[in-house]
Amino acid sequence: MIDYHIHTNLCGHATGEMVDYVKEAIRCELDEIGFSDHLPLVDGKEKNLTMLPDELPNYVSEVMSLRKSFPEIRIKLGIEADYIPGNESYIKELIIRYPFDYVIGSVHYIDKWAFDHPKELSGWDERDVNAVYEKYFELLRKSARTSLFDIIGHCDLVKKFGHRPSTELTKDLIDTAKVFKEYGVALEINTSGLRKPVNEIYPSCEILKLYREYDIPIVFGSDAHTPDDVGRDFDRAVSLARQVAYEEFVTFENREMKHQKLDSIGNSILSL
Ligand code: ZN
Ligand code: ZN
Ligand code: FE
Ligand code: FE
Known about the structure:
Layout: E1 2-6, H1 18-27, E2 32-35, H2 56-69, E3 74-82, H3 88-95, E4 102-106, H4 129-145, E5 151-152, H5 170-183, E6 186-190, H6 205-213, E7 218-221, H7 234-243, E8 248-253, E9 256-261
This protein binds zinc ion (2 copies) and fe (iii) ion (FE) (2 copies).
């Protein structure tokens, strides 16, 4: 089993040393993990959102050294990049400097509003929920079309605080699935939603079912911001994938996708 969404204390809002995340992954009997801390945003550090640009080399070398120290588990070098229209070349320049195995593209902002940040929760009161959902899915499609990302992160994060649209999302979801398919991105089954007010995996069963129809590959991620969250609720993530008839998940190496059978996941994950 893999956990491809793991943060580190470099971003300023996660706790624990990187080595503790690795140890927890080994304890959980994961075969492979990937660190995917927040790629520097221009003003990320001041707001405790991301690491600083000059911390990126340390992050990369720490992953490399953990890889050597713990041969019993495969450790991939990933990163989670905020997608904000206009920051494409900034992301590109940063990511080509390092040997990333994969890049997760995540939409956390709609027009500078961090819709998933607890401090910006009041922004929801000033906006129409249906319009927010529409914009969110439009940004997801845009992020996939940049071809900068291998994996689209938590692809219905907009539901985090429980806001639900009153209109049908079907057309938006189908359009998004088509773009994901066309650009060859994977999506993640991210269990962190279970630890948030919405109390649901990202994405929902309904969305995942649709993406399955379009054959969009999946990875698994806990979005751990503390070592204890590594591999958390993966029994539920796997059963969700099986429920909508996924038979495979994917892994990445040097930004190349490899298919794995979901059957190959041992029962150890069920007893975390
Ligand atoms: Zn974070
Ligand atoms: Zn665990
Ligand atoms: Fe995220
Ligand atoms: Fe994350």
